[in-house]
Amino acid sequence: MSADYTVQGSVAVVTLNNPPVNGLGLATRVAAVEAIRRAEADDAIKAIVLSGAGKAFSGGADIREFNSPKALTEPTLHTLIRVVEDCSKPVVAAIHSVAMGGGLELALGCNYRVALPGAQIALPEVKLGLLPGAGGTQRLPRVLGLEVALNMVVSGTPILSEKLAGTALFDEVFPAGTDLLSAAVDFANKVADTRPLPKVRDRKVDYPNHEAFVESSRNTVKAMAGPFPAPLECVETVAASVTRPFEEGLKFERERFLHLMQTPESKALRHSFMAERAASKVPDVPGDTPTRKIDSAAVIGAGTMGGGIAMNFANAGIPVTILETKQEALDKGLGTIRKNYENTVKKGKLTAEKSEQRISLIKGTLDYADIAGADIVIEAVFEDMGVKESVFRQLDTVMKPGAILASNTSTLDLDRIASFTKRPQDVIGLHFFSPANVMKLLEIVRGRETGKDVLATSLALSKKIKKTGVVSGVCDGFIGNRMLEQYLRQAFFLLEEGALPEQVDGAIEQFGFAMGPFRMSDLAGNDVGWYIRKRRAIESPEIAYSKTADLLCEQGRFGQKTGAGWYDYKAGDRKAYPSELVNDMIRQHSADIGLERRAISDAEIVERLVYALVNEGAKILEEGIALRASDIDMVYLTGYGFPLHRGGPMFYADSIGLAKVLDSIRKYGQARHGEAWTPAPLLERLASEGKGFNG
Fold it and tell me: Which residues fall within 8 angstroms of residue 690, CB to CB, at 6 or more apart?
């Protein structure tokens, strides 16, 4: 985690060396500053090449130092850039693979920049709710112009180096296959005696009628930024590169950066960023745990879920066979998959050629023998233990030794499913979320006997198929659906007490959820929850549920698929229209159970729904079902539409203060169905200690 120093003739080569992407952590900054000063003090050195070891020039700030004192300890990134910029000898940045964030800002502080094609160039800080804080908003417009720079800073999207060839960002983009270090040293020798040394800061940003462009950008960004303040702040700071002298613009950038650092939106985004990386780490499964090869896959069931799961494998280039019991069901499933790909082609998100390649990787069969050689098989059949047992007993008989046997169950006991086989070490839960080819979350359920290599393989597979894998222990509903049950219980109780579906959905969507509980239930199918409640009535008769959802299902109103659910739907139209029939049913049910309806505020709706998630999440955490609070947040951010700018239910509770959350839970515990609000012991303990779930 440092910088290496070598000499080639009269050129010093300073190589950032902090795997995996040469993050600019404190040790690296210290070593780089020392190396630049060493080269400057050596009379035999005429020029300096600044390069990056391994897979990157530099990916920017070292994420391992986020929110720690090291990030602000001298030399800071500002100091390093100033040392480079003030060096009396030319400094050439040799860029390959990645130059992002602080890495690009460091390169902009150099006198010259050379690159290989294919390098990703970006200032992605906006994705963390920030803006470039080390001169990026002031230097980038000076080499790329106001328009291109503003678009890059506001979007955070990488651009390939060859597309920026010919701009002042790069003095040269070498042909593919060039030895970058040799070419950079040759370039450094050519410019060694050039004076005065060119500095990006000395360039002017010339953009005719920039006021009109900036105002137009403000309006566009304001409409697209949603609840996030950073994109608009990016516009203002980039605009300062035109309207203010460089040092003044730099000072303004720093002020806005520090302001954004303290916003709840940036804190939430940074939490999410770190949480996603933490989710792949399991304490007793080291990173070097051997994994099993996954060169082929099989899926049991060609329904909506099975087809979506199969598409994930095909999208990753892995051949997959779908097994069904009837040809009609198989043909329908394969037809739906083809239609999904054709729709993606129509939207311009996939070429027709790639679509056909992916479709060709998906085969269908009615015979278990045809899937016997697959490296992994995932059952996606009806959520019934008897059906699962039948499938897993057959899989145990036909699948080759070493194959991973996975269940897509969303609630059932995985250990019991594993017991239907003679190889429980090979059984794991891979719970995809619908639509499985779109949703990012993959709940990886670790059974009591699941092998560590199977878990490691599943985590690696989640990345290969571009999912966010989160590990869960075994319990009814795992992490996501176990918490969702409490959320839905409160939503249904609210209907009995005085709310209507459109008010509940409207309140929680205003809070930031992608979809309220009733629109979500109509999309997923109300019969799914009905089936689970029937099972719970037998297994856990002591748990009280509102009867409103059962009354709805008894009318056959299962949601969008039947054209009627909590809302009414029109043919070819997915818009949810409030249903007077349903609303009358809800009001009548309140009367039937002798409950006088009352006005319920949106604030109460949000508190009851969100705090129900938090309280159950605390129980899950204490039981060890989730490894860490941030894993729970990732489940809800990537699988359940929890608002990203609020960071997930556990992070949101931390931001409110656990003592306040606990006070509200105790208040609701004194009201109707107070038994649903028994505070989690972990919540009580952390609140009393003034701590949060996330440390």
Answer: 659
Helices (H), 68-193: 77-85, 102-109, 136-144, 146-155, 180-191
Cα distance between residue 153 and residue 148, in whole Å: 9
Q: Residue 282 has what DSSP assignment?
A: B
Give the orientation angle of helix 602-623 with respect to helix 629-639, to 10 degrees: 130
pLDDT given for residue 535 in this prediction:
83
Distance CA 12, CA 87 (A): 13
Three-state secondary-structure class, residue 244: coil
Q: Are 319 and 296 in contact (CB under 8 A)?
A: yes
317 contact partners, CB below 8 Å, separation of at least 6: 361
pTM of the model: 0.93
Residue closest to 632 by CA, chosen among 484, 512, 488, 504: 484
Which two tokens mark 202?
Answer: 């000395």
Q: In this structure, what token pair is assigned to residue 48?
A: 């300096």
| Integer Cα distance of 142 and 465 in angstroms | 40
> Cα angle at 692 between 274 and 515, to 5 degrees?
65
Other CB atoms within a 10 A radius of the CB of residue 349 amount to 10
* 8 Å CB contact between 266 and 257: no
pLDDT of residue 575: 92
Say if CB 487 and CB 481 are below 8 A apart: no
Contact in structure between 511 and 484 (CB atoms under 8 Å): no
- For residue 683, give both structure tokens: 């919540």
What CA–CA distance (Å, rounded) separates 478 from 635?
Answer: 11
Q: Which residues are catalytic?
A: 105, 125
What is the block-wise mean pLDDT of the chain (695 residues), using blocks of 10 residues?
A: 92 96 96 98 98 97 82 93 98 98 98 98 97 97 97 98 97 97 98 97 92 95 96 98 97 97 96 95 95 98 95 98 97 96 94 96 97 98 94 98 97 96 98 92 98 98 97 96 96 98 98 96 89 84 91 95 94 91 98 97 98 98 98 97 97 98 98 96 98 93
